[in-house]
Amino acid sequence: MAKKSFLEQLINSPLAAKAGVPQGYPLRRYKQGEPLLHAPIVVGGQGRLTDALNTVLEGPYKLLKAEADSPRAGIVFDATGLTRPEDLNQLHSFFHPQIKKVADNARLVVIGTTPELIDDADARIAARALEGFTRSLAKEMRKAATVQLVYVDPAIDSSNFSTVESTLRFLLSGKSAYVDGQVIRVTPAPAEAPADWEKPLAGRLAVVTGAARGIGAVIAETLARDGASVICVDIPQAGEGLTATANKVKGTALPLDVTDPAAADKLAQHAQERYGKKIDVLVHNAGVTRDKLLANMDDSKWNMVQNINLIAPVRITEKLLAAGALGEKPAVIGVSSTSGIAGNRGQTNYATTKAGVIGFVDSLKDRLAEIGGNINAVAPGFIETDMTAAMPTGPREVGRRINSLQQGGQPVDVAETVAYFASTASTSVNGNTVRVCGQSMLGA
Ligand code: NAD
């Protein structure tokens, strides 16, 4: 990481904090072996999932009565019973007395029914309204507390509620420390709980592209921490970093340019030769930027970014699917960007590819569901990497702070979201793009 300039040190100092420059409250991240949350949680609301919620949550969490005064590290509100616009006042009556009792780094989660799957007009309106509530409350929270909305398919009830468990464990823990103001949709596809929630990827074989450094290296480490074997892929020129990551995660290194027309075959062959199995988790992390205003952008800058960021992930996935080279309940994960959602000056090439990744996820979700798998994308915002450290001081310091958590994220924040998608406990999480951006003001 680049050395901090004097100006950067000053902006991030207690003196600047006194002068009103936002510094962001320290994020409490997940540590293996520690409880998922540092204080009890409250379960509120009344709907078709309330009993199941209490049953699933009383295992990993301590539950607290809503009336109690002691601090709560989490609140889960079942809003599936709000079926008319008039019912939305229950959001106010429940949350209003709760807010001042939440601990630092608290996790608030509202559960609703997926609006587009509801026939009744009143219920559909009430379910859609939850988005405005959660996104606004997320912007009001302080001390690194976050708020999310989980839309649950109407076909999910207490008999198949286990499909929602991996999402709750992710959102109600330090794994989602830099995820804020997000909406995640859960389907009724059967999800398989792991034998050990601390090793949810045990027995899974994962491929991570762009693993020599930055976010990709940390994704490889996080998947390995969770029990996966990892094939680390990067261009031959990045060999040193690639070997370092592979050694660290006790995986294998495969020097390979993802734009190689034979890339899919080489991946499948490596998996068979070195592990004797198919690929279970495919993380398309390799990506490049070549920023220029469109008026000044030559063909090579346009084409390189398209080929690496979008065309390679699409063609590799199609070929592996067609060849039957993906394993049981395969998880495919794309890496998008908030630039692909909001657009960014100087990044027409990059934002095209990152929005394309969202289209890629959407186009393949039914195909992956057919074979018991899932496909999702993570969309990072400002993440502290070599790339962002190299930005000029002004845009960097603004970029870090223009989000509800008022700080940049760490590569591990992206990696935790990828690991959540990668588990067979998350096959019911399909077709989502989850932003890891601290609820950046850029994009929805
Ligand atoms: P990085 O430049 O540090 O790492 C990217 C890695 O991809 C490098 O090791 C590089 O060698 C590899 N790579 C490039 N071209 C390749 C190819 N043709 N074949 C195989 N490997 C190739 O970048 P990063 O910041 O770690 O970003 C990782 C991903 O996250 C990218 O897709 C990026 O667009 C995305 N992202 C990053 C941020 C951020 O703030 N850093 C924000 C949004 C999205």
Give the arrangement of secondary structure elements.
Layout: H1 6-11, H2 14-18, E1 41-45, H3 50-57, E2 63-64, E3 72-78, H4 89-95, E4 102-113, H5 121-140, E5 146-152, H6 165-171, E6 183-186, E7 205-209, H7 214-225, E8 229-234, H8 239-248, E9 252-255, H9 263-275, E10 279-284, H10 299-322, E11 326-335, H11 338-342, H12 348-370, E12 374-380, H13 386-389, H14 393-401, H15 411-422, E13 433-436
Parallel strand pairs: 1-2, 1-3, 3-4, 4-5, 5-6, 7-8, 7-10, 8-9, 10-11, 11-12, 12-13
Helix pairs in contact: 7-15, 9-10, 10-12
Task: Explain briefly what this protein structure is.
The protein has 2 domains: 19-186, 3-Layer(aba) Sandwich (Rossmann fold); 205-436, NAD(P)-binding Rossmann-like Domain (Rossmann fold, 3-Layer(aba) Sandwich). The protein has 15 helices and 13 strands.
